[in-house]
């Protein structure tokens, strides 16, 4: 398995490289974001480990360009930034996992292997459609009846989750875990509020309505109630 490490701290990079090599991985490393981007665009890696604070091009900008180019290489962020908002930013930018420094090497390897197992699954479709609603995940574009719909980042993620589970009811807890990614007070109304705003954009003025509430259970994207 080929792993790219993009880390400007030499001691950390040496530690990870030595450990992964002992685990049987083939490791390539570089110390700045621009070089990391070029490696990922030009060569094939099974996964990448990225620091966020990198010279030249930071990790968030790097992965946004990478995903914008259609490269789906699994990425594990490794960063000293440990707030919930920092972790959310990393995942929303396109990261697949986030590990805070200082870290356990055993946990790093476990998370990396989990990413690699996910990467071996069949690729998920990048164009999702329900009735006349079309979402292009790579282009980050949504249209209904040919009309472009402007969604905020969280609204886009929520709609993508609903469309990937079209026809199946998903609970509020499932949405919180998969769209927000971290623990929230189960009594929060953040899901209800976002669903309401999403309906205003997706269903208002169109027929049939596509986002439905299943009272006491959750929400579902489908053409019929």
Quickly describe the structure.
The chain is of the alpha/beta class and 225 residues long.
General description of the model:
With 225 residues, the protein is α/β, with parallel strands linked by helices. The chain folds into 2 domains: 2-119, 3-Layer(aba) Sandwich (Rossmann fold), CATH 3.40.50.2300; 127-221, Arc Repressor Mutant, subunit A. The protein is 40% helix and 20% strand. The chain has 8 helices and 11 strands. It has helices spanning 10-22, 33-42, 59-68, 84-92, 105-119, 153-164, 172-180, 190-202; strands at 2-6, 26-30, 47-50, 75-79, 97-100, 127-130, 133-136, 141-144, 147-148, 211-214, 218-221. Helix 2 packs parallel to helix 3 (59-68) and helix 6 packs across helix 7. The protein is elongated and about 55 Å long. The mean pLDDT is 88.
Q: Structural class per helix/strand content? A: alpha/beta
Strand coverage percent: 15-25%
Please provide the ordered H/E string of secondary-structure elements.
EHEHEHEHEHEEEEHHHEE
Number of strands: 11
What oligomeric assembly is this protein in? single chain
Q: Quick check: average pLDDT?
A: 88
| CATH fold label of the largest domain | Rossmann fold
CATH superfamily of the largest domain: Response regulator
Q: Taking strands numbered 1, 2, ... along the chain, how are they ordered across the largest sheet?
A: 2-1-3-4-5
Provide the number of structural domains.
2
Largest sheet, in brief, is: 5 strands, parallel
Tell me the distance between the termini: 47 Å
Q: What is the number of helices? A: 8
Low-confidence stretches: none
Shape: elongated
Helix content: 40-55%
Radius of gyration: 19 Å
CATH class of the largest domain: Alpha Beta
Going by CATH, the architecture of the largest domain would be 3-Layer(aba) Sandwich
């Amino acid at each position: 398995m080929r792993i790219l490490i993009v880390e400007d701290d030499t001691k950390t990079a040496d530690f990870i490289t030595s450990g992964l090599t002992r685990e049987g991985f083939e490791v390539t490393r570089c110390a700045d974001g621009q070089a990391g981007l070029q490696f990922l665009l030009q060569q094939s890696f099974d996964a990448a480990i990225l620091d966020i604070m990198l010279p030249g091009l930071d990790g968030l900008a790097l992965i946004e360009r990478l995903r914008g180019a259609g490269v789906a290489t699994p990425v594990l962020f490794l960063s000293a930034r440990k707030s919930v908002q920092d972790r959310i930013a990393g995942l929303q930018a396109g990261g697949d996992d986030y590990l805070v420094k200082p870290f356990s090497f055993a946990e790093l390897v476990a998370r990396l292997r989990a990413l690699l197992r996910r990467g071996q699954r069949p690729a998920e479709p990048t164009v999702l459609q329900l009735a006349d609603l079309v979402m292009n995940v790579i282009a980050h574009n949504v249209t209904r009846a040919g009309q472009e719909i402007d969604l905020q980042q969280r609204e886009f993620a929520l709609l993508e989750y609903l469309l990937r589970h079209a026809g199946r009811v998903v609970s509020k807890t499932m949405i919180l875990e998969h769209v927000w990614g971290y623990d929230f007070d189960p009594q929060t109304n953040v899901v209800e509020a976002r669903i309401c705003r999403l309906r205003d954009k997706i269903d208002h003025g169109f027929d049939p309505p596509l986002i439905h509430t299943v009272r006491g259970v959750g929400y579902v994207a489908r053409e019929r109630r």
